[in-house]
Every structure is written in C-alpha cells, then in structure tokens.
Amino acid sequence: MYDLIIIGAGPAGVSAAIYAARQKLHILILSKDLGGQVAKKAVDIENYPGFEKISGPDLVDLYKKQLQTNELEVILEEVVGIQKPGNTFLVTAKSGKTYESVSVIVTSGAKSKLINVPGEEEFAGKGVSYCSLCDGPIFKNKMIAVVGGGNNGFESALFLSNYVKHVTILEYGERPNADAENQELVAKNANIEVITNAQVLRIEGRVFVDAIYYQDRVSGGEKKLDVNGVFVEIGYSPATAFLGDLVELNEKQEIIFDPKTLATKTPGLFSAGDCNVSKYKQIVMASGQGAVAALSAYEYIKKVKK
Ligand SMILES: Cc1cc2nc3c(=O)[nH]c(=O)nc-3n(C[C@H](O)[C@H](O)[C@H](O)COP(=O)(O)OP(=O)(O)OC[C@H]3O[C@@H](n4cnc5c(N)ncnc54)[C@H](O)[C@@H]3O)c2cc1C
Predict the structure, then answer these.
(1) Most buried of the four, 64, 163, 220, 254, by CB within 10 Å?
(2) Ligand 1: which atom is nearest the Cα of residue 40?
C-alpha cells in the first residue's frame, strides 16, 4: 500500500513526485512514459526559468536524474482505471495489476488535436507547431498560417502578430467560433487575415514548411498560401477517460478542480497540469501545479493516517 500514486510523468507528475518525496511519503509513479509532451518536443524550450535554452530530451534526462536522486519508484505502465471503493484508491494498470494508495494525483496531460493532413507529421518542429506561446518568437518576420478559428486560433494569431510579418487564420466553418472580443481584436489587427470555409489539404516544403494548401469549400477550388510556419490550434484532448465518475469534467473533458488545493470532487484525488481546466498549458504551470497538488495530497494523507 502506497501513501501516494502519481499518474503521469510529465512536468506536473515529476514536480509532484519531487515535492511529495520531500515529505517522506511512500510514492509510486505510474506512467506510460517519462517526460510526457516535453520528451516529444522537437524545438528547444526557451521559456522555462533557469534555462535560456534546453532541448526536450535534455530536460527529460534531468527529470530522470532527479527522480533517481529522490529514490522514486517509477513503473512505466498505462493506467486504465481507478476506483475508490472505501477509504483507499485502487489504481488498475493495463497489465491487470492493481495498486493501492491513500491518495492519488492525476497528471495525465493532454495531446494537441492533429489536422491529419499530409506534411503535418513530416514538418512537425520544422515549421509545424502546436504551441504559439512556446514557438512563436522563433518565427520573427515570417509568414504564418494558423489553423483553427476558435479562441485558441484567434489568441494564437494575436500573440503571433507581435512577432511575425503576417498571419492567416484558416477556419473550416462558415464563420469563426472565437469570442466576439477576440474577433474584434483580430478585425482591428492589420497583420491578421481570416479565411473561412477553408479545408486544409496538405503542408509542403523542402527542409522547412514553404506552403499550406486548402480547399475553398464554397468554390471547391484548391488554394495555396506561401508560409514559413503553420500553427495547428484546434484544441487539446485531455487524457481523462480512465477516471470514470471520480472527477467532474468540463465540456472539453478537462478535470475541474479547487484552484486553491487542486482537489477534485473525490477526497484524496488531486489533479495537476494539462489534464485539468487551466487555461494556459505550459511546463512552468504544470510544474507549479504538481507542487501544489503534492503538498495538498500530503495534508490529506496526514489527516487520514492520524
Ligand atoms: C510541440 C509542443 C511544444 C511545446 N513547447 C513548450 C515550450 O516550449 N514551453 C512550455 O512551457 N511548454 C511547451 N509545451 C507545453 C508543455 O509541454 C505542456 O504544457 C506540459 O508538458 C504539460 O505537462 P503535464 O505533466 O501536465 O502533461 P504531459 O506532458 O502531457 O504528461 C502527461 C504524462 O501522463 C502520462 N499518461 C497519460 N495518460 C496516462 C495513463 N492513462 N496512464 C499512465 N500515464 C499516462 C503520459 O505518458 C505523460 O507522461 C509544448 C507542447 C507541445 C505539444
């Protein structure tokens, strides 16, 4: 029986584990992989304090070392279910094995939704990006397309317009879904153009992105935009399906939590990072939340074990 099981080993999970280890708890980390989205990052990270520039894999190596220094037990397995039949949690892994704990922190993260067109995977990190806050400054004075006319897309375009030469937002529907306020800001911005009824067909380039092709859904004609970067901003898929009714989810399937403690609706179950409702999905936010969740879990465990 563990004091604490942490599900996920991205920035939120690793930070939660480091903080929980300092409280001398008996901890297990169950995760599909080590590093989460950071491990898959193709472009250097330039917005994490202490590191002017660090690659995703290098940061994950440092995570690994810090988990080892803190003698943390990590099992690389997917969690498929979690229950709380009494006072403790039963966490079931894909292998069928069940682990018991007093408290659980869910840091299972999220994945950016893909547009699934030719060139998207090939040029990921070579002009195709899923995070304007992370990669925007790299595209100084460049021509950019943002795919998605919701708030994500509009806010990305507004942010990018501070750096790039021009942004074209490509929206599949007849009109954008972004809030009126974002639409007003974009309408006033001479550097941003919105094209609706645009179905993205493919992304092309040599080494880096050169162009994006889309079909005009009204005329049926194929159009080309010469761009150096494509930001895909059509939302996230949080990894929360395995939690069943132990948590309350919003319409995007993100976990709703108490902002002070990161507690979910089930006592003893906390959540941190991109799997929850936080608006900004960044390493520094996920790490901060991991620390809060660990300290809250410690308070809970202390009370329960008294
Ligand atoms: C391409 C890209 C570039 C980015 N660049 C930056 C950047 O430069 N700066 C920045 O601050 N942020 C950046 N981000 C965002 C940042 O990576 C995320 O905000 C951060 O990784 C979120 O951390 P997390 O721990 O909440 O989730 P994640 O990193 O998503 O980690 C989730 C963890 O949970 C595990 N998991 C999921 N489901 C299960 C399950 N059922 N069972 C067990 N384990 C599970 C996963 O394997 C993973 O280990 C970028 C994101 C992307 C996609």
Answers:
(1) 254
(2) 1
Q: Quick one: tokens of 146?
A: 């943002």
Of 134, 242, 246, the residue with max ligand 1 atoms within 8 A of its CB, to mutate for a pocket test, comes to 134
Say what the pTM is: 0.86
Ligand 1 center–CA 274 separation, angstroms: 7
Q: What is the pLDDT along the chain (306 residues), one digit of tens a residue?
A: 999 999 999 999 999 999 999 999 999 999 999 999 998 776 788 899 999 999 999 999 999 999 999 999 999 999 999 999 999 999 999 999 999 999 999 999 998 899 999 999 999 989 999 988 888 989 999 999 999 999 889 989 999 999 999 999 999 999 999 989 999 999 999 999 999 999 999 999 999 999 999 999 999 999 999 999 999 999 889 999 999 999 999 999 999 999 999 999 999 999 999 999 988 889 999 999 999 999 999 999 999 988
